[in-house]
Amino acid sequence: MKILFVSRDFSGASLCARLVREGNEVRAVVSDPASRQIFDGLVEKIEELEIGLAWVGKEGLIVVDDVGFGELQDRLRAEGYAVMGGSAGGEQLYSLRAGSTARAFTCLPNSPPDGIHHLVEFFGCCPHQINSQTFWETILAEALAGAEIQILNRHFCRFSPQGITGYFLLSASHIAIHTWPEHGYVACDIFSCGCEKETAAIVARVTAAINHQRVHAVALRRGFRFGTGSETVAMPPSETVAHCHRRCPASEVSPQSGEERVVHFEIASVNAPILRVPVKELLFASRSAHQAITICDTVQFGRCLLLDGVIQSAESDHAIYDQAILRKLRPGDHKVLILGGGDGYVAALALRLNPDLMVTVVELDAEVVDACKTHLDQRVFEHHQVELFIEDAVRFLEQAAEASWDGIVCDLTDFPVGCSGESMKEFFSAIIPLASQALKAGGWIGLYAGSKGAVVSDQSFVVDLLSTILATTFTEIESAEVLISSYGEPSNFLYARKA
Asked: How many Å apart are CA 450 and CA 488, to the nearest integer?
C-alpha cells in the first residue's frame, strides 16, 4: 500500500520505518529541513506536497502526524483523498481546551504570591524525541491535564541544526524547556504558585514522559512569604542507571520464565552523558572468534548492530554515516574498496549513488555479514557488482595490486579488531600507506576517525593522529564533523587524495 506521511518534524518516523518493514511503500513530506535526515535511506523524502499527492493518489493513504495541518486535511478529504489525522475544527477545540485567550486572562483571579520552583535537568535523552516540537507540546499539555491550572499561552522555537526552546504560560506561572539533542540534554523549569502536591505531580508526569538516563532535580520555595531567601525543598532521590565501562548490553532475568534477556544498552561518549537505549527485542547475540555481535530492535533507533557492546549502525540514521564516509565518491569512479563495512550499508549506498560501480568489501568477521543478512535484511552482498572477501584488511592490502581502485573507504570500528589504544598508531601507520599504494593516481580515501574528543593512550586526539599519518602519503586532507544521534555525539571523518 502507498502511504504518504505529512509532518513538520517527522515525529512519526518510527511508525514509518515499521510500515516499510511490513512491505508498504512509504514516503514523507517533512517541512522542517533539519528533520529530513531522520531515517534517511529508509524512508524517501519528498520536498513538495503536490508531488507527494501525485505519487500516493486517491487509492493510497495520507497520514498527518502533526498539528497545524487541519485546514489542509479538510481540503484533501473534500478532494477525495483518504486522510488519517485531525481537522481544522478539531485543532480549534484542542486550542480552546489547552489554553484560553488573553481576554480570559484578564478575568482570572491572581494566584498567591508564594510557590515552589522545580529546576529539572535530564541527561542521556533520546535525541529524536527531545528534538520534536510535537512531543513537547503534547507531553506538557498532558502533564497539566486535570490540574487546577489554566494554560494561557504557549510558544516554541526550533534551532538549526537541532534544538528546541519553548514555554507554557500558566495561570499559576510557567513551564519552560530548552533542549540540546546533540548532547541528549534537557533543561526544564517548572514554577507554580498552586498546590505543591499538584505541582509535584506535574513534574513527575513530565519526568515519566521523557526517555532519559539520569535526572537531577532541585526545588526551591519562592515568594513574598519567604522573603529574600529561598529554601531548598528535599526531593526524592532520582533514579540512576548503573553502567559498565565497555558499553555492554545490560540484561535481566525474567521472573516468569527465568530466562535472561537484554533490556538496554548504553552509549558512552566523551563529551556527553551516557545514553541508555531500551531494547524492544533481542534479535541476535553471539560471540565470534573476533568479537561479541549483537543485533537488537530499539524504540529510538530501530534495528541496531553492536560489536563488543559498541553501536556500529542504526536503522534510523546509518544513512548519515554512509553519506559522510562516501563524500568523495565521484560519478566517474569505476572501482571502490571498502575496508570493514560488514553491515553492507556503505556498499549499498555506493551502488545507489553510482550504479556502474564495482565494489570490493573486505570484512574480517564472516559472522557479522551473516547476522546482517539475516536480521538487517541485507542483500547487497548478493549483487553481481559486489565482491566480498573475509580477510584481514592489512593482509589484503599487502597482497593487492598497486593502483587498483579509484577510492578506498576505511569503514572500521572505533578501535579496529585486535587494536588497543596503544597499537592504534601502529595499525594505521601500516594500513594508510598500503591504501595509498592500492589507489590510482588522484584516488581518494575516506576514514571514520572516531567520536569527537576520542583519544588514544597518550591522550592525543584520534582525529589528530590519523590526520598526521595521512599527511605522510596523501595530500588535500579535509575533515568533517557529523552528528549521528545513535552514536551519542558528533563523529569525525577524514578525507584525502593521492597525488
From this structure: 12
